[in-house]
Amino acid sequence: MSANWLDKVNWDERGLVPAIAQEVGSNDVLMVAWMNREALARTVETGEAVYWSRSRNRLWHKGEESGHVQTVREIRLDCDEDVVLLKVEQHGGIACHTGRHACFFQKFEGNAADGTWSAVEPVLKDPHSIYK
Amino acid sequence: MSANWLDKVNWDERGLVPAIAQEVGSNDVLMVAWMNREALARTVETGEAVYWSRSRNRLWHKGEESGHVQTVREIRLDCDEDVVLLKVEQHGGIACHTGRHACFFQKFEGNAADGTWSAVEPVLKDPHSIYK
């Protein structure tokens, strides 16, 4: 595979870039994960989001366990070519492993001297019923 | 400053996390930059986005040269506590140093064997007139 388009990406010293999944329609930022060359190539090939799991050290087809796959409608690259943005349809409406729509459910409240992060988005589905 | 809320963030081995700036209203993803503890604390203190510039190795008050500052309306943290999401008002309507609204202006076209990244968003202002 020649795939010069993959060389355009500025992979970091680990061979990774952050990838943002943004929901088509709502434009909600659902999650951020990481991709290596193979993850990005597989995403293009399959039309579904494939990431690189740093914790499991392997390719991660998003939704492989939960069924909450992401159909990729568009792929963007930023000006520095070191961040990828996926515009996706989120199957099941749940991107987060906590059972929430999106991963960014903790909101900062307070001030710099005395702040807290509060969970402000509902759990749509019990994670125990998502992951057996 | 006690600031336990800063300890909640999973800073990486460099003491950084990625920070996404998302536009209030449109929900457009404008850019991704990096933050260290001080950048996040200053962002909360000042109400304007302050990042850590990896290339310049110093705090970077977004818009300090261009005037394209970002007023921060909300700060979110993801489930793994290693990515920050800022909901911002983008002054001047231009977040990208190329003079575009947002940094994600390169769109993937083609397939895995033969793909290209095409600039699909207009330059709103000549960068030479933004940065003297």
Automatic annotation (TrEMBL), chains A, B:
Q: Which Pfam families match?
A: PRA-CH
Function of the molecule: Catalyzes the hydrolysis of the adenine ring of phosphoribosyl-AMP.
For this protein, the Enzyme Commission number is 3.5.4.19
Cofactor(s) for this protein? Zn(2+); Mg(2+)
Q: Which PANTHER family match?
A: HISTIDINE BIOSYNTHESIS BIFUNCTIONAL PROTEIN, HISTIDINE BIOSYNTHESIS BIFUNCTIONAL PROTEIN HIS7
Q: Which residues form the Phosphoribosyl-AMP cyclohydrolase domain?
A: 31-105
Query: Cytoplasm as a keyword?
Result: yes
Question: What's the protein called, per UniProt?
Answer: Phosphoribosyl-AMP cyclohydrolase
Q: Gene encoding this polypeptide? A: hisI
**MF terms in GO:** magnesium ion binding; phosphoribosyl-AMP cyclohydrolase activity; phosphoribosyl-ATP diphosphatase activity; zinc ion binding
> Which of this chain's residues are annotated to bind Zn(2+)?
79, 96, 103
rRNA-binding as a keyword? Answer: no
